[in-house]
């Protein structure tokens, strides 16, 4: 474990290591807020993400997420158990995919077809790791463009693990509640609350369409018949 991870792991509300970031354009990452961590005399940005599940599942969730290690997944650095329970996550420094697809600050988008294909492949590899390479497997259940963080080489990292759902060997869920975002969540999941890997696969398909077309899954500016 690095010095940064060791310092973050001991974080609590009485420890002044973390303070809100005072400057910079990016003040959020996924559903979390960017803050500065003082480590060995230097300031390191991290992301504070409030735990959204029931409190009793926090320790089990942290233990599970803490073992997740993949280049296309945001890394958990530590946690806070005092006051609001929080996850302390890796900060990724180039914003999220939604910002670059729908709010690009330059006239010509830097997202070439090669970069877009790299993003699609990276997200697919991250999901495959969650679904197939760890036990219990993890269903993210809120995959969307604003939860895909990008570094300066345009490599994607899936974020927002505060709402993941854990599955045991028999497939029974261990924590979580049905989440999701309109347009990324299938009608079957929305109506019956069934949650498994297919939830993420559907969301991934909608994400691929968004990356290719440049349109959001739900476009309220379109006529009603073309909204989805």
From TrEMBL:
Any one Gene Ontology cellular component term annotated for this protein: membrane
Record PROSITE patterns: PROTEIN_KINASE_DOM (PS50011)
EC class name: transferase
Membrane topology listed for this record: Single-pass membrane protein
Statement: the UniProt record of this protein carries the keyword Hydrolase: no
GO molecular function: ATP binding; protein serine/threonine kinase activity
Entry superkingdom: Eukaryota
Catalytic activity: L-threonyl-[protein] + ATP = O-phospho-L-threonyl-[protein] + ADP + H(+); L-seryl-[protein] + ATP = O-phospho-L-seryl-[protein] + ADP + H(+)
Protein transport listed as a keyword: no
Keyword annotations: ATP-binding, Kinase, Membrane, Nucleotide-binding, Phosphoprotein, Serine/threonine-protein kinase, Transferase, Transmembrane, Transmembrane helix
Record domain Protein kinase: where: 23-228
Subcellular location: Membrane
Principal place of residence: membrane
Family annotation (InterPro entries): Kinase-like_dom_sf, Prot_kinase_dom, RLK_Ser/Thr-Kinase, Ser-Thr/Tyr_kinase_cat_dom
A Pfam cross-reference name: PK_Tyr_Ser-Thr
EC numbers for this chain: 2.7.11.1
The protein's name: non-specific serine/threonine protein kinase
């Amino acid at each position: 474990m690095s010095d940064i991870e060791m310092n973050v792991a001991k974080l609590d509300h009485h420890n002044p290591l973390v303070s809100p970031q005072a400057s910079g354009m990016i003040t959020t990452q996924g559903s979390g807020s960017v803050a500065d961590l003082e480590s060995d005399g230097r300031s390191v940005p991290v992301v504070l993400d409030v735990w959204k599940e029931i409190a009793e599942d926090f320790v089990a969730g942290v233990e599970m997420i803490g073992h997740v290690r993949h280049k296309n997944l945001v890394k958990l650095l530590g946690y806070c158990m005092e006051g609001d329970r929080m996850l302390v996550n890796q900060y990724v420094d180039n914003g999220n995919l939604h910002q670059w697809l729908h709010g690009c600050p330059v006239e010509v988008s830097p997202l070439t077809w090669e970069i877009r294909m790299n993003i699609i492949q990276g997200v697919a590899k991250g999901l495959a790791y969650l679904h197939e390479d760890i036990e219990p497997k993890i269903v993210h259940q809120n995959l969307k463009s604003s939860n895909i963080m990008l570094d300066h080489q345009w490599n994607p990292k899936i974020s927002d693990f505060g709402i993941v759902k854990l599955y045991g060997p028999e497939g029974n869920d261990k924590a979580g509640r049905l989440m999701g975002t309109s347009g990324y969540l299938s009608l079957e999941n929305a109506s019956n609350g069934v949650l498994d890997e297919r939830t993420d696969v559907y969301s991934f398909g909608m994400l691929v369409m968004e990356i290719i077309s440049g349109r959001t899954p739900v476009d309220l500016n379109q006529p009603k018949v073309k909204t989805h």
